[in-house]
Amino acid sequence: MEEAMKQIGERLRGLREIVDIEVSELAALCGISEERYLKIERGEADITISNLMKIARRCGISADELMFGEEPRMKSYYVTRRGQGLSVERTKAYKYESLTSGFQKRKANAFIVTVEPKPDATRIYKNSHSGQEFNYVLEGTMEVYIGEKVIRLNEGDSIYFESSAPHGMKAIGDKAVRFVAVAID
């Protein structure tokens, strides 16, 4: 996990330097302080997938290049075999496996997300981004927080929502929740 954060940070710093963008601009784009942004570049803090997507969009590249260090190559179709999607573990609690990483100029990003339970967690981190999102629970139970609303989803349940609303989720119970998340621009 720490190595993945460090690699993402190095790619962010390199991209910022190549396209000559100020730290202040990227921090404002992400809605975070310059100090927090610099910690991300040093690999000392995590960045949300939605903020990676914002930076990638601003710089005209694929978010895959920031997350995985690889550029998508496929144009007509892309197959992801079971367990073979490119993965990034952003924190100890969140693991993302991309199901769409190899397809160029896609309109949606699909992931299998695994969230470990944190029974003592009282604060739910919420983020927002453009577009819409679809989540389908494969295993476990989770709570989805959209604005002030809390929705419990069990295995086989799904939700579709405007992702511009502040949203977050957490695993409920003592086992991890696995779900498919599709972010649509």
Number of strands: 9
User: Which structural class matches the secondary elements?
Assistant: alpha+beta
- Main sheet summary: 6 strands, antiparallel
| Number of distinct helices | 5
The fraction of residues assigned to DSSP E strands is 25-35%
User: Quick check: average pLDDT?
Assistant: 86
For the largest beta sheet, what order do the strands appear in spatially?
A: 1-2-3-9-4-7
Detail the poorly predicted runs: none
Shape descriptor reads: globular
Helical proportion, percent range: 25-40%
Q: Kindly, what is the distance between the CA atoms of the first and last residues, rounded to a whole number of angstroms?
A: 27 Å
Radius of gyration: 16 Å
H and E string: HHHHHEEEEEEEEE
Name the descriptors.
6-stranded antiparallel beta sheet, 185 residues, 5 helices, alpha+beta, 9 strands, 3-stranded antiparallel beta sheet, 27% helix
